[in-house]
Specification:
CATH architecture: 3-Layer(aba) Sandwich
Largest sheet: 5 strands, mixed
Order of helices and strands: HHEEEEEEEHEHEHEEEHH
Number of strands: 12
Radius of gyration: 22 Å
CATH topology: Glutaredoxin
Number of domains: 1
Distance between the termini: 79 Å
Length: 222
């Protein structure tokens, strides 16, 4: 417990001391202004937009113990990334609980992550209250590395916009949904059907029957 407290306090001090440098970094990021709305107005997203078919950028976030977790931690796994602005809001809570329930119906080679800019303390409290034990809940609050590399950081809010990504076991982005309005739900059914399709093993190629010519040649050699 002492080690965790020391690590948490150290991280919070680092967050405070680096707030100015983070602001400077964000000022240099690419801005996208016509993809997502809050209510009736578009918000500005900071970072680099990624697309289906591209290699998923590696990123570094932290778990409830402030230990770093990277996308490469899940090599050879199919990964669904559920991105939410804040777990303490209604839609984000429902989104996280929905995917937590769905994990139990999926193969073991599938990993589900929920990422937000909530501090790990808040995430841990939420998971305990809502019995979130199958989805891995991770925080991008320390470095904002994930939000910047995937173009999800909302300018002047410090939150991530709502999104879903599916990364294939080979590291390719197979699915992307930037939810058009921050307050709306993602398309759960589409994401889950895509995930299940990717996890379905390809059927073995049927054994071809010999052609009549091959049969006659075989008979002739007997």
């Amino acid at each position: 417990m002492k080690n965790f407290t020391k690590a948490a306090l150290f991280t919070l001090l680092c967050l405070s001391s680096h707030s100015y440098s983070l602001a400077q970094e964000e000022a240099q990021l690419t801005e996208t202004t016509d993809l997502v709305k809050a209510g009736t107005k578009y918000v500005t997203l900071l970072g680099t937009q990624v697309n289906v078919g591209e290699k998923a950028p590696n990123f570094k976030v932290v778990n409830e113990n402030f230990s770093p977790v990277e996308l490469t931690s899940f090599t050879n796994k199919t990964v669904l990334i559920s991105v939410v602005p804040s777990l303490d809001t209604g839609v984000c809570s429902i989104q996280t609980k929905r995917f937590n329930e769905e994990v139990q119906n999926l193969p073991d080679d599938i990993v589900m992550l929920t990422i937000s800019n909530d501090l790990p303390f808040a995430q841990k409290r939420f998971c305990k209250m809502e019995n979130i034990d199958s989805v891995k809940v991770l925080s991008d609050a320390v470095w904002r590395d994930f939000g910047q590399k995937y173009g999800l950081l909302i300018k002047d809010m410090g939150l991530l916009t709502r999104a879903i990504f599916i990364v294939e076991s080979n590291g390719t982005i197979a699915y992307k949904e930037l939810v058009e309005n921050i307050s709306s739900h993602p398309d759960y059914d589409m994401a889950l059907s895509t995930l299940k399709a990717l996890s379905t093993p390809k059927s073995e190629e049927p054994v071809q029957s010999p052609s009549p010519a091959q049969e006659s040649n075989t008979s002739a050699t007997k």
